[in-house]
């Protein structure tokens, strides 16, 4: 019943869930979600994860968990974090993933809805410390589709891995045009970023 409700709401917002790829690794992973240019991305992403049946948690600054929002955010999968110290932050989140049998953490690597040309490294460090793969989630305003792409097993070479991951997002556009730095990149004819663990 809930699944049909979320599908209906996505259709009402004129978004089409892409069911072609629902990786088994989504049970325990870091989900990168991009482009992120609008507050609506969270709503669409939340609806989509529920449609897929993926129980994804998301990170929100601790100060947002004050009454009356705290209980609601936790019920939706919110995890309060303090992002000031990179080492402490990534250790905290990776420990949460490691101690759970099923735990997918959804992270927007841009870290803001504004235009940025450099992704924050936290998503990568968390996946590395938790020893889990990265699943590439997306919302593409060009096609009005939201879905999951390939699963990426990091190699430890951050610059190489980031380049390979970002190739998947070439040409995609966020809700607010011009605020996703990869939207003018031309998709390659063949992008295969699945690699061995």
List the keywords.
197 residues, alpha/beta, 7-stranded mixed sheet, 6 helices, 7 strands, disordered C terminus
Q: What is the percentage of strand-forming residues?
A: 15-25%
Q: Care to count the β-strands? A: 7
Structural class: alpha/beta
> If helices are DSSP runs of H or I spanning 4 or more residues, what is the number of helices?
6
Shape category: globular
Describe this structure in words.
The protein is of the alpha/beta class and 197 residues long. It has one domain (2-167). The protein has six helices and seven strands; from the N terminus they run αββαβαβαβαββα. It has helices at 2-12, 40-52, 69-75, 86-99, 122-130, 158-167, and strands at residues 16-17, 28-34, 56-61, 78-81, 103-107, 134-140, 145-152. Strands 1-7-6-2-5-3-4 form a seven-stranded mixed beta sheet, sandwiched between helices. A hairpin with a 4-residue loop joins strand 6 (134-140) and strand 7 (145-152). The model is unreliable at 189-197 (pLDDT under 50).
